[in-house]
Design a protein that fits this description.
By secondary structure, the chain is an alpha/beta fold. It is built from 6 helices and 6 strands; from the N terminus they run E-H-E-H-H-E-H-E-H-E-E-H. Strands 1, 2, 3, 4, 5 and 6 form a 6-stranded parallel beta sheet that branches. The protein binds flavin mononucleotide. Flavin mononucleotide binds next to helix 1.
Length: 189
């Protein structure tokens, strides 16, 4: 089971990327997680329907990475009450062409955090709606991490055992959803 993990923040010391590294440690057996490098989002041009043909190389590369994954795990910060523009731009590119989008039926789970008190709950709610609109099968749960800057030690492990457990539960729910999708697809063949 291959999970592609995407951080909605591009910055080097992103807490959201750190949260995904912690999620990798909490994965159930048989699952592996690959963290998308920030350059993959940085390289995307702003979505422009006039650029769709021929498709830009960075867009094609990202679509291939998503197509090759069994599931997506996306950790989003909250910028001004919603999803960062770079992440929304990536979903917009991935959602096209509508007839063949790599997001259709793709299992996805969302988590995220902020340095404030609420843990990016608005961004997570928006991201889940955006992904579902684009055709993904979004796991019906969220994982908000407030006071992000205080949540981790040097080793990428969350201080709070409840957060470590929440990460394990969250990733297990995603893996189970993707396994069910796989079984249904196999039964239809
Ligand atoms: C442009 C911008 C807007 C932000 N808006 C919010 C916000 O609406 N709510 C919030 O809780 N934090 C907000 N923050 C703080 C982020 O939660 C914080 O910078 C967080 O660490 C970003 O995630 P990262 O560490 O993965 O980069 C904002 C930060 C930036 C740079």
């Amino acid at each position: 089971m291959r999970i592609l993990a995407i951080a909605g923040s591009l910055r080097r010391d992103s807490h959201n990327a750190r949260l995904l590294r912690a999620a990798a440690i909490a994965l159930p057996p048989g699952a592996e997680l690959e963290l998308l490098e920030p350059d993959a989002l940085r390289a995307l041009p702003p979505f422009d329907a006039d650029l769709e043909e021929p498709v830009p190389a960075a867009v094609a590369a990202l679509r291939e990475r998503v197509a090759a994954a069994d599931a997506l795990l996306i950790s989003t910060p909250e910028y001004n009450g919603s999803v960062p523009g770079a992440l929304k731009n990536a979903v917009d590119w991935l959602s096209r062409p509508v007839a063949t989008t790599v997001l259709r039926g793709k299992d996805a789970a969302v988590l995220g955090g902020s340095t404030g008190m609420f843990g990016a709950v608005w961004a997570q709610a928006d991201l889940r709606r955006i992904l579902a609109t684009a055709g993904a099968r979004v796991v019906d749960r969220e994982l908000p991490v407030p006071a992000f800057h205080e949540a981790f030690g040097e080793d990428d492990l969350p201080h709070d055992p409840d957060l470590r457990q929440a990460l394990a539960d969250h990733t297990r729910a995603l893996v189970e959803a993707a396994a069910t999708t796989r079984e249904l697809a196999a039964a239809q063949r």
